[in-house]
Amino acid sequence: MISYIRTNSDNADFQALVQQLDQHLRAINGEEQAFFTQFNATNQLRHVIVAYYEGIPVGCGAMKPYSETIGEIKRMFVREEYRGKGIAQGILAALEMYAKETGCTSCVLETSRHLVSAINLYKNSGYEQIPNYGQYEGVEMSICFQKNLV
Questions:
Q1: CA distance 137 to 150
Q2: Assign residue 46 a region: left if phi > 0, alpha if psi is -120 to 50, beta otherwise?
Q3: What pLDDT, on the 0 to 100 scale, is given for residue 32?
Q4: What HEC string does the chain produce?
Q5: Which residue positions in the chain have pLDDT lower than 70?
Q6: Boundaries of every domain in the chain
Q7: Residue of 101, 99, 35 whose CA lies nearest to 109
Q8: Which residue of 48, 65, 78, 96 has the smallest Cβ count within 10 Å?
């Protein structure tokens, strides 16, 4: 059974999952990951989802304001052995609900071009590729997406 809890970045399970995510990204992106780390601070995130599979923390994600009407999806991760069970879709849907509740009309996100499964998740969830925004402009290994929520 999968359950999702709303929490914030102080949650110990979220912090442990983010450490696993960072290890995973370093393995994929190598030294280039240092560039992205500066944009992925997890302190003071108020809108965090932690997914549990039979009581075990297996996935997470966060939403933070990008502007008054745009939420940014951050720190999406599901432990490898729990992928393919719909957990990431559930986390993403819960984060989109958070965004709507805070007055956002759309969400944006950035991911690595190397993360094909993440790209497929976002496309299958209604996200459309957009030009790289903000700090990701001109970053070749980044790919950005946006989804209208209304």
A1: 26
A2: alpha
A3: 62
A4: CEEEEEECCCCHHHHHHHHHHHHHHHHHHHHHHHHHHCCCCCCCCCEEEEEEECCEEEEEEEEEECCCCEEEEEEEEECHHHCCCCHHHHHHHHHHHHHHHCCCCEEEEEEECCCHHHHHHHHHCCCEEECCCHHHCCCCCEEEEEEECC
A5: 29-43
A6: 2-107
A7: 99
A8: 65
| Residue position matching structure tokens 């997406």 | 145
Structure tokens at 61: 């994600």
| Beta carbons of 75 and 21 less than 8 angstroms apart | yes
pTM over 0.85: yes
